[in-house]
Design goal:
Elements: E1 3-10, H1 14-32, E2 36-40, H2 45-51, H3 57-64, E3 68-73, H4 88-98, E4 103-109, H5 122-125, E5 129-135, E6 147-150, E7 156-159, H6 166-181, E8 186-191, H7 197-210, E9 217-222, H8 223-232, E10 239-242, H9 244-258, E11 265-269, E12 275-279, H10 296-308, H11 313-328, E13 331-332, E14 342-343, H12 346-359
Parallel strand pairs: 1-2, 1-3, 3-12, 5-10, 8-9, 8-10, 13-14
Antiparallel strand pairs: 4-5, 4-11, 6-7, 11-12
The structure holds nicotinamide-adenine-dinucleotide (NAD).
Residues 13, 17, 73-76, 89, 92, 261-262, 278, 281-287, 293-294, 297, 335 line the site of nicotinamide-adenine-dinucleotide.
């Protein structure tokens, strides 16, 4: 049966990079018999420009009616003065909350061909392949009460609440263990159980859920140590699972280990495995419209979509192998350019991936 994918290019370089990912999806259709129906909709600044809303109702409905969502990026300096509820980011947050995308998968993969792009020594990062599973819709970013209040002495006080209910920990634990089952079967749960009661409960629930996955090895690490270990010996990790705020910070550290923001995909999943897939980078207004953006993070987001939502693991593997091949051929967009390699633009990189895929058809 044909799979329905909502295509949300968004702003800045979004339309350029998504166009290359669409070429890949069309190639899967024409050469590998993967039946797919692609429907495009507006989000972010593009939604605001066309409909006065960063998340038009028609876009949300299209996503609800689809099997998966592919998003480019949202945002741009021209929208920064808008009221908060009209800003492009509101479109992204609206999608996450309306679609209940609580599990954010952020892989940090360093292709050996790009080991020089990292600021760390090649032997520390070359071949790195770790997955950070971040809880995305709970924790201190959403906990109530929150605000800034005036104390009796007239001083102002800011406050937020870190809160997790058991069911929220359980579902992110299941998400992490299921992903580990498709990888090296090791989960490291990152918390601050020596200080926070929420983390004590987090640990307890992780241990409980782990019993349902006897093949997976569970370990625990305090977040301060985890941040050190990520930089010292990142290849020790397979899957890391953590709360919203810790994951926000650790996943950016992990991304920078690879040194190439244009290469990293991500996924946000709900309890049924429905997901929104997008590159981790933003709309890159500084290079938008120039055709020089790296489309590989978006193309690799399609691979993640095939692996984690559409259950087409063999096709996901093919895309990842094709990306490795274009890197082997020495093709590089501006952001990953290095001496002795051939610089290509966004469309040429997309075409090269399609060509590498087609050879295998
Ligand atoms: P950014 O990720 O857009 O850009 C950071 C730097 O990386 C820039 O120099 C950019 O040119 C480069 N870069 C990013 N993606 C690239 C690619 N595919 N190929 C080559 N180079 C690439 O981050 P920023 O500059 O902090 O933010 C720009 C806008 O994007 C802001 O409006 C921000 O709010 C938004 N943003 C959106 C998302 C999202 O849609 N998920 C995420 C982060 C930032």
């Amino acid at each position: 049966m044909s799979k329905k994918i909502a295509i949300l290019p968004g702003d800045g370089i979004g339309p350029e990079i998504v166009a290359e990912a669409v070429k890949v999806l069309n190639c899967l259709q024409s050469e590998f018999g993967f039946e797919v129906e692609l429907n495009e909709a507006l989000v972010g600044g593009a939604g605001y420009d066309a409909a006065g809303d960063p998340l038009p109702e028609a876009t949300l409905q299209l996503c609800r009616d689809s099997d998966a969502v592919l998003l480019g990026a949202v945002g741009g300096p021209q929208y920064e003065a808008l009221p908060r509820e009209k800003r492009p980011e509101k479109g992204l947050l609206g999608l996450r909350s309306n679609l209940e995308l609580f599990s954010n998968l952020r892989p940090a993969i360093l292709y050996p061909q790009l080991a020089d792009a990292s600021t760390l020594k090649p032997e520390v990062v070359s071949g790195l392949d770790l997955m950070i599973v971040r809880e995305l819709t709970g924790g201190i970013y959403f906990g109530q009460p929150r605000g800034i209040r005036t104390l009796e002495n007239g001083e102002q006080q800011g406050y937020n609440t870190l809160v997790y209910a058991e069911h929220e920990i359980e579902r992110i634990a299941h998400s992490a263990f299921k992903i580990a089952m498709k990888r090296d079967k090791r989960v490291c749960s990152v918390d601050k159980a020596n200080v926070l009661e929420v983390s004590e409960l987090w640990r307890e629930v992780m241990e409980r859920v782990a019993k349902e996955y006897p093949e997976v090895e569970l370990s625990h690490m305090y977040v301060d140590n985890a941040s050190m270990q990520l930089v010292k010996e990142p290849k020790q990790f397979d899957v890391m699972v953590t709360k919203n705020m810790f994951g926000d910070i650790l996943s950016d550290t992990a991304a920078m280990l690879t040194g190439s923001i244009g290469m990293l995909p991500s996924a946000s999943l709900n309890a049924e495995g429905f997901g929104m897939y997008e590159p981790i980078h933003g709309s890159a207004p500084d290079i938008a419209g120039q055709g020089v953006a790296n489309p590989l993070a978006t193309i690799l987001s399609v691979a993640m979509m095939l692996r984690y939502t559409l259950d087409e693991v063999a096709l996901a593997d093919r895309i990842e192998v094709a990306v490795g091949e274009v890197l082997d051929q020495g093709l590089r967009t501006l952001d990953i350019a290095s001496e002795g390699c051939q610089q290509v633009n966004c469309a040429e990189m997309g075409d090269a991936v399609v060509a590498a895929l087609s050879v295998k058809a």
